[in-house]
TrEMBL record:
InterPro entries: ABC_transp_permease. GO terms for molecular function: transmembrane transporter activity. This is ABC transporter permease. One of its GO terms (cellular component) is plasma membrane. It is found in: Cell membrane. The chain crosses the membrane at residues 21-42, 54-73, 80-105, 111-131, 138-157, 177-204, 235-253, 289-307. It is a multi-pass membrane protein. The lineage of its organism: Bacteria, Pseudomonadati, Pseudomonadota, Alphaproteobacteria, Rhodobacterales. It comes from the Bacteria. Keywords: Cell inner membrane, Cell membrane, Membrane, Transmembrane, Transmembrane helix, Transport. It comes from Neotabrizicola shimadae.
Amino acid sequence: MTAIPAAAPHRTPLVLHLLRLRTFVALILVLGFFSFAAPNFLTAANAVIVSKHVALNAFLAIGMTFVIITGGIDLSVGSIVGLCGMVAGWLVLNGVDTGLGWTIWFNTFEISLIVGLVGIGVGLINGLLITRLNVAPFIATLGTLYVARGAALLSSGGRTFPNLSGNAEYGTASFPWIGTGTLLGLPVMVWLLVLVGLAAAYIARRTPLGRHIYAVGGNERGAALSGVKVNRVKLFVYMFSGFCAALVGLIIASQLQAAHPATGETFELNAIAAAVLGGTSMSGGRGRIGGTIVGAFVIGILSDGLIMMGVSSFWQTVIKGVVIIVAVVIDQAQSRLQARVALAQEAATR
């Protein structure tokens, strides 16, 4: 009786491993380049500045990751940032006039809650447009982009809300601490990012909701047939994205101690770039929160490094666009290579 040799295990190509690790490779490359090309780049002071910029990008990118995993897109996050910053500025400066001769004033914690609810509310509108009215995510969020930006402009007639240093009498003296304070040597916004990042990663990997998010992006029809509440999942991801954008608006208003209605313009580009660069597939069904945060570091370091080198802001926008295109092309190449490897492994086991 002749023994039939077992099929040799099919090895994953080195190119595929490199594609999967592309975010870390990109991070190492940009760090290495700017450490030589930009003076004082690797200083403690600059590291703190970069960490603050990265945190702002990462908040938006984490929310965007969930949206893209489901096969959607959220173009409204930048406008939500501006709107929520204006809401915070209005509440700190003016409170809420009841029309009865007295004004309701909120403390810093209450203002933060209200701002978060505003962001969640805009995300809910996005989700309802997409799930109930069957509006394409691109069109729905493009529409709310303009509505939110217009509402931000209307709130002050296009003017800035200045001097948001707060008032101890109304409990808002701590408002600037959100954006400028430190805790155990790190900026408060970085600690907030850690909390949001850990919560998002836990949801994505350890909860039924996270599995449903991936299932909707992988095969929405199949997910629905298996009992997944597709509409509820989509509502959640857009509401979560709106909440992340609200945090950014609150932090920027606190950091600058001023709120301007144009805040957040083009922020959606950074969010999309960080998510895609971090391995989130634009076709849905694939993405990791950890990879997105690393992608946010790449985008943040790239932006700050270009500024330190004196590169024009116009060229920075061009470079970010190129990064998005290259990231999507690489993602498509990874998907095709993974499909070929899977077919080869299946054939080898027969």
